[in-house]
Amino acid sequence: MLTRREFIATAGAAAAMAAHAQSEPALRIGVMDGVLRLASQPEAVAKARALGLGGVQVTLGQDAAKTRLLLEDAALQRAWKEAAQREGVTLDATYLDILHVNCLKNDPKAPDFVARGIAATKAIGAPILMTVFFGKCELLSRQETDSAIAAFKELVQEAARAKIVIGFENVLLADENVRAHDLIASPWFKIFYDVGNLTNMKG
């Protein structure tokens, strides 16, 4: 049985996927690979298919030393693409989980991980890279938000070249999200408001 957080995360991912599937003849529901207890593992595709789901959000993962993304590995990228083709399941987005360790708001290593995440996302054929701002990496001040915005202004240029949407997943107030959206002003940057994490942080 899914926990409340996992259920909300699945619903949130499904809504994001639906927004990028307007050309599809019917609604396709997807799931995060981590919800299936198969984070970064291509076996998540077959499990999603067995559950009647049409899409998977792929966790980019990280090695033990926190120096590289698991999905930078070409063989693993091929395994995900082959599994998706074989099962008829869409890889709808990726999730840059290392941003829970290296915060984009204040860690000089973080922008490089986002750039590498864009490349890995393109390599597996997913359209969206989800960047996350929760826990110790939550944006708690205007200064921290402006630092993230400055990083995004540079990164969105690379995203545009790769034709990958950067998803800004956060729990900021609406006016701060609008401000970030307007300052970055790119079709390759989208806001994703995470109700699940807000629920867990607010109690």
Describe this structure in words.
With 203 residues, the chain is of the alpha/beta class. The protein has helices at residues 4-19, 43-50, 74-87, 110-124, 142-162, 174-184, 195-202, and strands at residues 30-32, 55-59, 90-95, 128-132, 165-170, 189-193. A six-stranded parallel beta sheet has the order 1-2-3-4-5-6, with helices on both faces. It is built from seven helices and six strands. Helix 1 runs antiparallel to helix 7 (195-202), helix 2 runs parallel beside helix 3 (74-87) and helix 4 (110-124) runs parallel beside helix 5 (142-162).
Termini separation (Å)?
21 Å
Decide which structural class fits the backbone.
Answer: alpha/beta
- Average pLDDT reading: 88
- Main β sheet profile: 6 strands, parallel
For the structure shown, list the relevant keywords:
six-stranded parallel β-sheet, globular, 7 helices, disordered N terminus, 46% helix, 203 residues, single chain, alpha/beta, disordered C terminus
Q: How is this structure best summarized?
A:
By secondary structure, the protein is α/β, with parallel strands linked by helices. It has helices at 4-19, 43-50, 74-87, 110-124, 142-162, 174-184, 195-202; strands spanning 30-32, 55-59, 90-95, 128-132, 165-170, 189-193. It has seven helices and six strands.
Helix-strand layout with pairing:
Layout: H1 4-19, E1 30-32, H2 43-50, E2 55-59, H3 74-87, E3 90-95, H4 110-124, E4 128-132, H5 142-162, E5 165-170, H6 174-184, E6 189-193, H7 195-202
Parallel strand pairs: 1-2, 2-3, 3-4, 4-5, 5-6
Helix pairs in contact: 1-7, 2-3, 4-5, 5-6
